[in-house]
Write a structure and sequence with these properties.
Elements (H helix, E strand, L loop, with lengths): L21 H13 L7 H13 L1 H15 L4 H5 L9 H7 L5 H12 L14 E4 L10 E4 L1 H21 L7 E5 L6 E2 L5 E4 H6 L2 H9 L3 E2 L3 H4 L4 H14 L4 E8 H24 L9 H11 L4 H13 L6 H5 L5 E5 L8 H8 L4 E3 L2 E3 L2 E5 L12 E3 L5 E7 L11 E2 L8 E7 L7 E13 L2 E9 L3 E2 L6 E2 H16 L5 E9 L6 E8 L5 H14 L3 H8 L7 E5 L3 H11 L18 H9 L1 E6 L5
Parallel strand pairs: 1-5, 3-6, 3-7, 7-8, 8-9, 21-22
Antiparallel strand pairs: 1-2, 4-5, 10-11, 11-12, 12-17, 13-14, 13-15, 15-16, 16-17, 18-19, 20-21, 22-23
């Protein structure tokens, strides 16, 4: 949601304004801002979203006006000649340049170092968000403000309203939420720094806001804020089972987190059952506050529940349908399942059985952008409707080769169906015409706001000379090769890649962790399939004329990618925010070392011989 309204006003919702009426836009905008943590009304939230999206262009203009007005004393804007009188989008775009995180890094560093002058924003900055760093090999610092927290709650309410219309949950229902709040640290300038998820979970409005949308978490707060993510995951699983009949949906920020949680359950279920049966918490839980909270939750021995879970687990075939077996009243499984999370959907669907998989909404550490208002669509078909008042949005056209075209960016309502764009955002927290690096495809409109599909990150590109392969291209290649592996009843657990230019010519290296052992000829087939799976014209021609060497498949030991995750968690990433890096850059020395140290077999493609 946008900034708080200082003066609360009362309006009659039956007002029927004229389209384009500026007062109406103020009315609508003000109504959205006042919905902080009040009683949730599904129909009203949907109605307001309908009104807002019918007037998307006017809401965008008003949002930009509000942002510039609230930040008129920001030094960054004043340096470009922006003052309180600048309200026209065209004037704003003519004065303020497009930027990336590297351009803003010096400004944000001053904020981290304790400079309290209005550098990027005139609004208070109570914390700084730290991105996971998995996309670029280095974390980014991003201002986190109360306005971004309100955006988060607005987005959650909007998405929940549409989900609850399709999948109604009970008033006394709970959510099994695999959420983890890593520690905030205080910068040398005295500013709290944490991941975006940590800043959200630690915000005092978070719990009240989630309660208003009937999403009480099964786990005690002590589990969410546990300093040990392994103990927290164990307790999340135990908490969910203790409330198994009340669990209405299962959530993690990313599909990877859901798959990891239930893979962990496969290994630890007997220990969890023993805890329930004896009423005594496992000795693996050593954090005092977590142990105290979970002991209260156990409430003594429960042999009946323990036997129920034991019977359920032993009756499953290869853990198919594990989630509905554990949580019989669950309506759906929820998390980000698009983009780099697509490789985990197959395994998640295995655990979910017949339960619907609902894709979480579209956003980034910089802020939320779009809501899933068609929750019945499968993850493969999921689209997201841009919420017009979460920021001022522009879209840079991207060519078929993946390059940003020389054309200027277009506005929210000017995008064309079928075209791919890089997202540009201006928000309340001091980001102005900021290139997110995300490429999206416009697949339609919801009223007058675009519905988009996430395609890939622009900067995650495998390239040696004229070849350009994105994260999506890599993913499609892996999916194609994994079909050969599936014939042997083996799956790809996780994967990453690297461009090796230490040899002449350079070549692509793909790292695979697989679920079992198989013959070398099978893996050689997979290696050839990976090589042929990159259909970029520049890559294929370079392979044929041998200016790019044979693709190399390196199979790593089981647990290698967990070591990669542990590395990033050690750097301060949140377990709930973690995304496996799909392309490891040479500068990411430690991750490359982990991968290389755990290689058990290597294969070189013969596909172009």
């Amino acid at each position: 949601m946008g900034a708080k309204s200082k003066t609360k006003q009362t309006f009659s919702f039956e007002i029927t304004p004229k389209l384009g009426d500026v007062d109406y836009i103020y009315f609508l905008y003000g109504r959205m801002l006042e919905k902080k943590v009040e009683t949730f009304n599904m129909n009203r939230v949907i109605d307001e979203f309908e009104e807002m999206t019918r007037n998307a262009d006017q809401v965008q203009k008003q949002t930009l006006k509000e942002i510039l007005h609230k930040n008129q004393s920001a030094i960054y804007l004043q340096n470009f000649g922006i003052n309180g009188n600048t309200t026209d989008p065209e004037a704003f775009k003519a004065l303020v340049p497009l930027v990336t995180d590297l351009d803003l890094e010096p400004y944000i560093k001053r904020m981290v170092d304790g400079d309290t002058s209005p550098i990027l924003t005139a609004l208070p900055v109570p914390a700084i968000s730290l991105s996971s760093g998995t996309s670029q090999g280095r974390p980014k610092f991003i201002p986190f403000t109360d306005e971004l927290m309100e955006n988060t709650l607005q987005l959650f309410r909007t998405a929940f309203a549409f989900r609850n219309r399709d999948f109604p949950i009970d008033d006394n229902g709970r959510a099994l939420q695999f959420i983890f709040s890593s520690k905030q640290y205080i910068s040398k300038g005295g500013v709290p720094v944490g991941t975006a998820t940590t800043n959200v979970y630690r915000n005092p409005n978070f719990k009240a806001g989630m309660k208003s949308i009937q999403s009480l978490c099964c786990s005690p707060d002590e589990v969410i804020f546990s300093p040990d993510v392994h103990q927290a995951l164990y307790c999340h699983l135990l908490s969910g089972i203790l409330f198994r009949d009340q669990v209405q949906y299962v959530f993690a920020s990313f599909a990877h987190g859901l798959v990891h949680a239930f893979r962990t359950f496969e290994q630890l279920w007997e220990e969890i059952v023993t805890d329930i049966e004896d009423g005594v918490l496992s000795s693996r839980i050593t954090v005092p506050a977590v142990r105290t909270a979970m002991t209260k939750l156990l409430r003594g021995p429960n042999p009946e529940l323990a036997e129920t879970i034991r019977t359920k687990c032993m009756s499953l075939s290869n853990w198919y349908g594990l989630i509905p077996a554990l949580f019989p009243n669950a309506k759906y499984v929820y998390g980000i399942m698009t983009g780099s999370m697509e490789p985990y959907v197959k395994k998640l669907r295995h655990y979910a059985g017949e339960l619907p998989l609902v894709s979480h909404d579209y956003g980034s550490s910089e802020g939320w952008i779009a809501a899933n208002v068609r929750p019945r669509l499968s993850p493969e078909e999921a689209t997201f409707a841009v919420v017009p008042n979460l920021g001022y949005f522009e879209f840079l056209p991207v060519s078929e080769t993946g390059e940003t075209e020389q054309e200027p960016p277009v506005g929210l309502t000017e995008v064309k169906i079928g075209q791919e764009y890089e997202v540009v955002i201006t928000n309340y927290a001091g980001l102005y015409r900021y290139r997110l690096g995300d490429v999206v495809k416009i697949v339609g409109f919801y009223n007058k706001t675009p519905q988009l599909k996430f395609i890939c990150r622009r900067n995650l590109i495998l390239s040696i000379n004229i070849d350009k392969n994105t994260e999506r291209d890599l993913q499609m290649s892996v999916e194609s090769a994994a079909k050969r592996l599936a014939e042997e009843k083996i799956e790809v657990i996780d994967f990453s890649s690297h461009v090796d230019v230490t040899t002449e010519p350079g070549h692509y290296v793909i790292y695979w962790e697989i679920s079992g052992e198989t013959e070398d000829d099978v893996l050689q087939d997979c290696c050839n399939c990976l090589d042929k799976g990159f259909i970029d014209a520049g890559y294929m021609s370079s392979r044929k004329c041998k200016t790019i060497g044979a693709l190399e498949l390196r199979v790593v030991e089981r647990g290698t990618f967990r070591k990669v995750q542990e590395h990033f968690l050690g750097l301060g990433s949140s377990a709930g925010q973690f995304k496996m890096p799909r392309c490891v850059k040479p500068s990411n020395v430690k991750v490359l070392q982990i991968l290389c140290d755990n290689v058990v077999s290597r294969f070189f493609s013969t596909a172009f011989e």
